[in-house]
Each structure stands twice: as structure tokens, then as C-alpha cells.
Amino acid sequence: MTEPVLEVVDLVKHFPVRGFGARGVVHAVDGVSFSIGRGEMLGLVGESGSGKSTVANCVMRLVAPTSGTIRLRGQDITHLSRRSLRPLRRDMHMVFQDPYSSLDPRMTCGQIVGEPLSVQGIARGRELVRLVGDLFDRVGLRDELRFRYPHELSGGQRQRIGLARALAVSPALLVADEPVSALDVSVQASILNLLRDLQEDLGFSCLFITHDLATVEYLCDRVAVMYLGQVVELAPTSELFTEPRHPYTQALLSAAVVPDPDVQRSRSRIVLEGDVPSPLAPPSGCRFRTRCPLEHRSAPLSHEEEPPLVDLGGGHHVACHLVRPGAEETKLLDPAELAG
Amino acid sequence: MSFVDTTAAVISPRARRRRILRRRFLRRPLAVVGLVVATAFILGAILAPVVAPYSAGTTDFNALLAHASSKHLLGTDELGRDVFSRILWGARASIEAGVLATLVAMAVAVPIGVAAGYYRGFVDTVIARLTDVLLAFPFLILAVGLAAILGPSLTNATIALGVGAAPALIRIARGEALALREEDYVRAAIANGASDLRILARHVLPNMLSTLIVQATVAIPTAIIGEAVLSFLGLGVQPPTPSWGVMLADAQSYLSQAPLLAVYPGIAIFLCSLSFNLLGDGLRDILDPRTTR
Amino acid sequence: MSLLEVSDLSVRFDTDDGQVHAVDRFSFTLGEREVVGVVGESGCGKSVSFMSLLRLLPETAIVSGTAMFDGVDLLSVPVSQLRRVRGRRIAFVFQEPMTSLNPAFKIGNQIGEVLRRHLGLSRPAARTRAIELLELVRIPAPDRRVDEYPHQLSGGMRQRVMIAMALACDPKILIADEPTTALDVTIQAGILDLMRDIRERLGTSIVLITHNLGVVADIADRVIVMYAGRKAEEAPVRELFARPQHPYTNGLLGAVPRPGAAADASRRLREIPGRVPSLAELPHACAFAPRCPRADAQSRSAVPELREVHPGHHVACFHPGPDAEAVA
């Protein structure tokens, strides 16, 4: 069995808050575990405050985790120094959300794409120029754009530059943090298609972070749903969308709007009451209990104990007190019942 | 909020940017005036040996405290020296001090400020607190104090002015570095595996350039006035070298007889610093990428 | 009986690159109790059009056309008269609830300000009404929340407060510019429900500006699709999604991933090649022609006018019709 490209075990990241009013710890990520195999695309879905971007930053070692382990191609990178990390940065790279701030406005696009190659000492001079040209070609950009500055390109073109830069070193892992959220709809489509094609061609693994479920369904092999710093459900894509088990996943799926008036208006919706609790003070036990429509059934256990991530078989994991494997009827959460 | 996306295909990126900047500049008459007047002073200072009708020390005991005439455009002072020429020669000291002091300040402040803002942590705390302490002193008091310690001379005055201006610039440089390190492209550079040095040189400093240019243009007039004050107090330029501050000091004794002797250098100081100020204001506006006109 | 009749609205901006034509001869009507969705991508002119109605644009904007509201042309009346309409008869809700509220004042105060200014209510009366409004927008414990500051509320709540402020004087028209774009999916659902409720209970007409076709599918009665400052297509909502006529509309609908699409691994998202044209010149051609699979000599030499292809369904296209690769 080939080892996974990325292994994240019990990742925790807390940020201390030292302000005038608030004092405490932001529990951005609190015990997240998952792995990504070769050539696999894992979607990480969550709303604001879920901690998904923090997971990305930890995996990329742009911040140091508070605790837990991150293994890239079998090697523990959790606490490596900047210097030791440097050669390993050939194995992973990132595409950022904002096409405007992710490119240095003072560098030409060619320089931006070539920078990882020169920093890593992979190529210089004419060879560098050739490789950059190849990369531009791969992401569907005309070669003459290498002399332009980022502000002269459209958002979609900038994201292509970002992709080219990230793939320049042929990484084993690509982390994509909301790569299309800031783009127009029609442009999103071309970038998503491009990402899909590139992944098929080059075979890299990808951690795809987004809040948009439809995109995840289109692109990813497996999906992890995060809520308030924890993974609440992890499953192969088709199964997550046809048989969601966790009540939050079900609420998320029902809330997403569908561009089809007949379907959209006839769906029943699970409405979550209240707000997302603050990561400064996550609820005890199950973090979702304050908004869970089934809280009355899981209490008082859900107030006291955190539900563990349980394997239901077939790669489907759920963290919910009301879901247990092995029983005759594991579907305690019937979407029809939730829909009311 | 940007209402329109005006990214259109262009001739060449640099040429287009220059064109836009030029157009924006021309739409700001005050900045244009600032540029013209500042240039005039600089040219006057550089070309003083050629343009000034007299040398700074030429005296004419037959025309003491004379009124403006065809021989002496602005009259003469108490030693018969031509005021107009002395204004031109004096411009040299002022502008030299102004520009050099600013460069000194930049050379000191930028590395310190960037180090503080980029690395943060203990280094930052120390630098920030020290800067705060220094900022508690008014700039002139600091400069005067330093000049007094160093001893009166134009060079020492320049150094004192430079060091006095540094704390404010440290704060600005620190702020810029602090903001820039959070930019996604800096994170991308880290993800590339770039060293700190490379990131600072390639990504942070170039993106601070506009701010620094503007700050410099605004620091120069402060330094010019500072030099005038130091010379006025006898801590800067030493006679017989002319300087506007020295001219002001000398004019004190003759206020009742020839008040214009004080007015001319005063106006020179005022106009020179104002012009740099207007230029700096305009530059700040023009170089801001969010400006639409 | 139309509430608002906009005719030939055009907006130009004076910029570094010369004049930019953000909106070109945009006309539309809004009826009572109607929800109209205005859809388009960035730069299509959807926000600019509506902001121009209330003169919320910067001075570099040159606006022409007419906008008849209640017998008065909003674009030509003096500002003093317009102020009586702004916030009172036509209200605006912006995209960013984080920055639209003043962080220094309690929300009850901010809502109350609208009431005191437009309706001349006294402070206590304004406070009572503010609590009523907070209840209307379904904020729990309104009597407590009314004394809170914006930073104490979540994004979704802040947007509800913005809506409450907009509804304070019972306006006839509520213009919401991307009201849910900055919000989470689950929160968005609640805001859309709220808007539906507002239309039912208060009879307010709503203009919903968005780039999200799903949002429009959810609550709009009628949809206008804009491209490069012009109206490309307009139709009742079901009609638009079932029989899109304009190639741009077809492209948009094909570009959005559909749920259940995972099963069809071979299906690709529909891409629209090229990019939005520069608005610096108004070519005498169809603005979409450079990117259109149906473009021909006619599209490149003349501007298509709006024509009715089905009842209530208008398209500005020389070759209207659904795509061969029709949306599933």
C-alpha cells in the first residue's frame, strides 16, 4: 500500500488573543485528522469559523501547529525549522483565494512563475525561460503575458498565474484555498476545468478548500466537512451527497441554492437556529449541539462528551452521537424527518 | 469601491503607467506648482555660482542696508552684501541639508523599521518602545540637542536633523513592513522556500517604495526648516557661509531699520518647504493605486 | 401598474483611461410586490445602474436617462427632493454588512436615526419602532439587541439590521446589492427567507442584484441578465431557466456546477472564452460577439435591440435560442 501523500493527525491550532476586551484562546482547529492519497483530491468544506483556512496554513507550514502531526510523503514536517523545510517545499505548494493580493504587483508574471524555480535552484537562465514558457502553456496563457504585470491581467488570468507558480516545482501536493471564490461565475468554470485537467495530467494530490458544495461535488474524490475547528463528516463525494449522516452536513446541503427554480422552490429546507458560536468559547461536548435540530435526542451526552469520528465503513466517517455503525438501522438521521 | 474594470490591452506596461501618472499629475495644479517651485530652488542652488550676481561674501560698504535697486535686486544687508545672491547661495545649505538629512534618516530608519515590522517579537517590542520614547520629543528639540552635543557645523547639523527625523520614519517603515508581510504574495514566497533576505529584498522593499518616496518628499521641508532653526541658533552653518537661518539671525538686530532683511529669507524658507510639501502631497495621491483620476 | 420606470439609463465615468461606459441605455420597469433579480458578472453595470437612481455614485459619473418613480424623475430632481426618497421610499442594502454599520453607535441608535430623520419620531418612539423592526427581521431577543454595538453581532445579524434600517420607513422599493454574497450558505438561506417574507407581509418590491443564479432561482419573479452595461435578456424566472435564449445566459447556466453532477464524470463545466470587453469604447456591435459561438457578420456590425421572443421574454440577440448542448 503506497503511503499517503499527506497525513494530518490530531491537528490543533490555537491563537492567543491579547486585546483590551477579549482575552483568551481562539480554537481555530481542534483535533483534525485526515489523509490524502496519491492523485487524490480531498475537498475541505466549511463555513466561516470552521478553521479550514487554518488547516491549509498549517499543512503548508505557514504557521506552526499548536499540536498534532503533519506528515508530507511520510516525513514529519510539523516542527521543522524554516531552513530544513526549504527543500521540502518542492513537494507542496499553494494557490491562494485572492487573485489580486497573491501576486507581487512589482514583478512581471514571468518572474512570478519563475521564482519558485530559481529559489529552489531548479533552473536558471535560458532553461528557466523555457520552463516558464511551458508552464504558461499548460495553464492556457499566451507566452507574451509573461512580460505583463499582474494588474494588467484579469482575475481569471491571475489565478492561472497562481496555478502556474504553484505547479512550477511539480509538487506532490497542491493546497488550493478557495481558488475560485473571488472570480466571476464564467471564469470559475474555466479555472475549475483547468484544475481538473491538470490534476489528471500531472497526477498531483490536492487539498481543495471551499465553502461551495457544488464545486466540491464536481471536482473532489472525497470530502471532509468542518464545523468550528473539527471534522464532522468525511466520506467519498458521491456518498456524502447522497447519504449525508451528520445533521450539519444535511443542513449545509439543504441550504445551498440550486440554479433551478422548480427544484429550488420545492425543496424543504433545514433551518439552523442561532449563530455559529465563537471559536473563543466553543460549546462543551458536541460543538454543533447549540444549533442541532436533533439536540433533544442527543442530550445530555452531547453536552458532556465530544463525539468521536467513527468509521461507518466504506471510508465514511461521522462524528455524531446519534450515528453508530453496525446497528441494523444506522440511518438515524433521515433527511425527510429533518426537512419536517 | 471600484465601479469599473479598466484593464485593457496596452502598448507597453511601463509606458502606460508613466502616461497615467503624468496625466494624474497634470490634473493636480498644486502639485505642479510644487514641482515647479521646488525645481526652481534646486536649480538656483546648483547654479548659484553661475546665476548669482555676487559671491556670498562680497561686501560693498558704500551700500549698507540699501533698498532694492537695479544693482541689488533685493537690496543689501548690514555688511553691504547682496541679499538676492545670499538667498541663492543660502539655498545650497538649506537644500543640501534638507536632502542629505532625509537620506540619512532613511538609511537609518528603513532597515530598523523593516526589521521590526517584519520579524516582530522581541526585536520589534524593543525597537517600537525606543521609537516611541524618541517620538515623545519634538523633532526640533531632538535635533537641537544632538547638534549641540556634536558641535556647530553644517555636517553635524545634517546628521542631527537626520537622526531627529528617523523615529517618525521608523514608525512608517515598520507599519509598511507589518502590512506587507501579511500579503498573500509574501506567503507565496515563503511557500516557494525563499529566504527572509530574498523576501525582504524582492517583495517587501519594492512595495514600500512609493510610500518611502512620498515620505522623503515630505521630510525634506521639515529638514530645511530644521536647518534654518539650527543655523539661526548658531548650531549649523558657521559664518561667513550663508544660510537662510543665519540670514534671519543676522536680521534680528536690524528689524527696525530694514525689516525686509528678515522677510526675504523667511519667504524663501516658506516657499521652499511649501513647494516640497505640495509635491509630496501630490505624489502620495498619484502613486496610490486606488486613485482613479 | 409600475412603481418604477427606468428609460434609457446610461452612466459614464471619467477615468484615467478616458470615458468608460458602465451602463448603456438600460431600461426596465418594476411593479408592485415584485421581486426582480438582476444578474451579471463584475463590470456588467448592475450595481452602477441602481446606485445611479439614488445618485450614490461619485462625481466622476455622468448619468443620463429618466427614472420615473411616483410621478417624479429621480435623475433630474434636485437633491433636496431626492433625499426624501432615499431611505424612505426607496431603500438600499449593500453587500458588506461589516462596513455598512457605524461601529461607534448602538444599532438601535442607527435604526432610530433613520426614523427620527425621515419620520420625525421622538427618541422613545424611535426606539420602540426599532425593536419592532428587529423583530420583523427575526432577530431573537430584539429588546436586548437594540442596545448592542455592531461588533457584537454576527455577519448575518448585521445584514438583518441593515435590512431593518432599510425597511424602517416602509419603503415601496428595496434594492439589495449582493446582500448575501459575503455571508455563509446557511445564513444566506435565512436572509432569502426573510426577503420573501418581507414581500409577502409588507408588499415591498425588491430588486435583488446578484451574480448567483441560485439566489435568483430561489426568490425572483422576473430576471434581468446584464452584460457589458446592457440588458442581454429578461424573462419570468422559470421561463429564463427553462428556455434561456441569449448565448451569455446559456453560458452562465452551463458554468455553474449542478448537484448530482458528480455521477457524470465526463461532463465539463461550460466555459465562456475570452473576457469581458473594455468599457472604454462602445463598439457598434453586439458586446458579446467576441466570445459568442453564434457570432456572425451581423453581430459584429450592429447592436442587437431587445425583442420579445416569448410573452414577457425579451432578448437582445440576433441569434436567440437555447444552446445545442442544452443545460440538463
Outline of this structure?
The complex is a heterotrimer of chains A (340), B (293) and C (328). Chain A is of the alpha/beta class and 340 residues long.
Summary keywords:
heterotrimer; A: alpha/beta; Rossmann fold; 8-stranded mixed β-sheet; B: 293 residues; mainly alpha; 0% strand; globular
Which helices and strands, and how do they pair?
The complex is a heterotrimer of chains A (about 350), B (about 290) and C (about 325).
Chain A: E1 6-18, E2 23-36, E3 41-45, H1 52-59, E4 67-72, E5 75-76, H2 82-88, E6 92-95, H3 109-119, H4 125-138, H5 155-167, E7 173-177, H6 185-202, E8 205-210, H7 213-219, E9 222-227, E10 230-236, H8 237-242, H9 247-255, H10 261-266, H11 295-298, H12 301-304, E11 310-311, E12 317-318, H13 335-339
Parallel strand pairs in A: 3-8, 3-9, 6-7, 7-8
Antiparallel strand pairs in A: 1-2, 1-4, 4-5, 9-10, 10-12, 11-12
Helix pairs in contact in A: 3-4, 3-5, 4-5, 5-6
Chain B: H1 13-26, H2 29-46, H3 48-51, H4 83-119, H5 121-135, H6 139-150, H7 154-180, H8 184-192, H9 196-232, H10 244-251, H11 260-287
Helix pairs in contact in B: 2-4, 2-11, 4-5, 4-7, 4-9, 5-7, 6-7, 7-9, 8-9, 9-10, 9-11, 10-11
Chain C: E1 2-15, E2 18-31, E3 35-39, H1 46-53, E4 61-69, E5 72-73, H2 79-85, E6 90-93, H3 97-100, H4 107-119, H5 123-136, H6 142-145, H7 155-167, E7 173-177, H8 185-202, E8 205-210, H9 213-219, E9 222-227, E10 230-236, H10 237-242, H11 247-255, H12 297-301, E11 307-310, E12 313-315
Parallel strand pairs in C: 3-8, 3-9, 6-7, 7-8
Antiparallel strand pairs in C: 1-2, 1-4, 4-5, 9-10, 10-12, 11-12
Helix pairs in contact in C: 4-5, 4-7, 5-7
Question: Could you tell me how far the N terminus lies from the C terminus of chain A, measured between alpha carbons in angstroms?
Answer: 45 Å
Outline the biggest β-sheet of chain B. Answer: none
- What profile does the largest beta sheet of chain A have? 8 strands, mixed
CATH topology of chain B: MetI-like fold
CATH homologous superfamily descriptor of chain A: P-loop containing nucleotide triphosphate hydrolases
Average pLDDT value of chain B? 85
Rg of chain A, alpha carbons: 21 Å
Assembly context of the chains:
heterotrimer
Write down the secondary-structure element order of chain B.
Answer: HHHHHHHHHHH
Helix segment tally of chain A: 13
Number of strands of chain B: 0
Q: Uncertain segments of chain B of ≥5 residues (pLDDT<50)?
A: 1-10
**Structural class of the helix and strand makeup of chain A?**
alpha/beta
